[in-house]
Amino acid sequence: MRFLAAFFIAVLYWATTITAAPAIIKPFKVCDPTAKGPFLRQRQEAALKDFAKLFLIDKNPKAAFDKYIPGEYIQHNPDALSGREVAIEYLITLQATPGLVYSNITLISGNGLGLLHYRRKSVQADMDMAIMDRMGFKGTCMNEHWDVRQRIYGNETNPLAFF
Ligand SMILES: *[C@@H]1O[C@H](CO)[C@@H](O)[C@H](O)[C@H]1NC(C)=O
Ligand SMILES: *[C@@H]1O[C@H](CO)[C@@H](O)[C@H](O)[C@H]1NC(C)=O
């Protein structure tokens, strides 16, 4: 009897660790717009981190969008219209800019939002910007975008400017 109890506790422990832990840690094949529950915040944080890796480190916006923005994409950038195809096309061209480097990448998530803050620089293309992309989550997918951009000239009054 005691053996049986111990066995059940062991199974229960195993089941809890197996079902709970990987949901937080394991990267998703594709996001889930219906995801909810107590670990949603952690899962959104993991999604944002993986999205940033695909987008800014691998410079593969198509892969980032296919995995995390598979459906609607509500755009608030004043120079662009909504829709993921428009954004992917723009970003593929942008990522091909010669000498493009991303640095000072910071990620924050919570309250159903994810924020990417980073520097996008290309000496060849005379491009140097401090950018914040605010992403809206739907489950572990993202479906909305706002951004703020600042031009970096290198002559700023504040020695702590931008980062
Ligand atoms: C920003 O990135 C540059 C280049 O990697 C680095 O030298 C600098 O220390 C970073 N600044 C901050 C505030 O992290
Ligand atoms: C820095 O340089 C830019 C571009 O030349 C200029 O528009 C801006 O006024 C300058 N800012 C300061 C604080 O000198």
Rg computed from alpha carbons, rounded to a whole number of angstroms: 20 Å
SS element count, helices:
4
User: What is the β-strand count?
Assistant: 5
Quaternary form = single chain
- Please outline the major beta sheet: 5 strands, mixed
Indicate the proportion of strand residues.
25-35%
Helix/sheet category: alpha+beta
Average pLDDT, rounded to a whole number, is 88
SSE series: HHHEHEEEE
What hetero molecules are in the model? Answer: 2-acetamido-2-deoxy-beta-D-glucopyranose
Largest sheet: spatial strand order: 1-5-4-3-2
Name the shape in a single word. globular
Low-confidence stretches: 6-22
Query: What is the share of helical residues?
Result: 25-40%
Distance between the termini: 63 Å
Salient structural properties:
binds 2-acetamido-2-deoxy-beta-D-glucopyranose, globular, 163 residues, five-stranded mixed sheet
Folded structure, characterized:
With 163 residues, the chain is of the alpha+beta class. 38% of the residues lie in helices and 28% in strands. The protein is built from 4 helices and 5 strands; from the N terminus they run H-H-H-E-H-E-E-E-E. The protein has a 5-stranded mixed β-sheet, with helices on one face. Strand 2 and strand 3 form a beta hairpin. Residues 6-22 have low confidence and may be disordered. Residues 153, 155, 157 line the site of one 2-acetamido-2-deoxy-beta-D-glucopyranose. Keywords: Signal.
